[in-house]
Amino acid sequence: MNAIDDMIRLLKRLPGMGEKSATRLAYHLIRTDESYNKALGDAVSTIKERIHPCPVCGCYTDQDICQYCSSESRDRSLLCVVEEPQDVISIAASGAYNGLFHVLGGAINPLDGIGPDALSFPALLRRIEEGSFKEIIIATNPTEEGDTTALYIRHLLRSKPDLVLTRLASGLPIGGDLGYADKLTLARSMKGRVKL
Amino acid sequence: MNAIDDMIRLLKRLPGMGEKSATRLAYHLIRTDESYNKALGDAVSTIKERIHPCPVCGCYTDQDICQYCSSESRDRSLLCVVEEPQDVISIAASGAYNGLFHVLGGAINPLDGIGPDALSFPALLRRIEEGSFKEIIIATNPTEEGDTTALYIRHLLRSKPDLVLTRLASGLPIGGDLGYADKLTLARSMKGRVKL
After folding, report:
1. Residues of chain B found within 8 Å of residue A85, distances taken between Cβ atoms
2. b (16+ CB within 10 A) / e for A2-13
3. Rounded to a whole number, what is the distance in Å from the CA of B176 to chain A's nearest CA?
4. Least CA distance to A105: which residue of chain B?
5. Domain range annotation of chain B
6. Per-residue pLDDT tens for A94-111?
7. What topology is assigned to B60-167 in CATH?
8. Of the N and C termini of chain B, which has fewer Cβ atoms inside 10 Å?
């Protein structure tokens, strides 16, 4: 059974994949179409060759410049600053934003040894300097690290009073239930309550 | 982003993999070691070439004959009949069984059009005829289909009164809690209660 054991051992290294899930997946792959296995295997093998960070914004792309940075139809007066490349996809998929993006590569987290030097602030400042942005939307996560990073960006941009700085709203998730909301989220949604 | 979208589309076809999990996994794979991706991709691409059903028992193997059928140390008077190849692994891993296995390839399920002809009963009968089994342990699932299949095997072997037929015990899972047990399991564990 060595080929299956090897497969299970490799699958178990994926995030959120325990012994049972990995075993189930391995047996599933023995039953699927050979053409599907080849396609998936090839995609996994070559993903790192085909994908690289966009040299402008830092999101992942298989083009020279990503689809957002090279788009003619996006609003070049708006810049949305996010922590990770996948945040770009989430925000783009929400349909509520049509500006450009900037990926920091994480959030400031002194406990994990991630200081401002580890993130792409110089590129952010250069883009703001050279671009024609009117508003910077800070869309770091609603966590302590994300909040710290947002404050740091405000500090970096203190010499640009004409630039509007905003932060994504925090509060109750849509479709959520007050009873299931954690205290911090509830407190923040109370503090940030809006007029009806 | 086509290479990532392709990857997500392929990953979403795996069982239990929704849009969010597939996206998370795809982004994880962009960050992992290239050597890991190559190893996993290769394992996925080639698993069907390397694994085939054991011609004797039907469990998956990368050898001519599987490790259980070819083992010198297993008890050849015991035969455990299971539905699927992965059930062999589960039972072998329990450490409570040291006999041989037979994989039926499913359970009788008229609603899904799976009759006895679709399962490996002829091979089972031939092995029992040619082997020296004293006990057949029917380890089909504790479901209606598994029970039907167990009864069918009893019917098939009615002309062999010396052969002991047993079925895996059903009841409360170890470490479980009465409050969380479903009614059917509780009823079965009551009906099958054992002397202390």
Report:
1. 27, 30
2. ebbebbbebbee
3. 18
4. B31
5. 3-50, 60-167
6. 888 999 999 999 999 999
7. Dna Topoisomerase Vi A Subunit; Chain: A, domain 2 (3.40.1360)
8. C
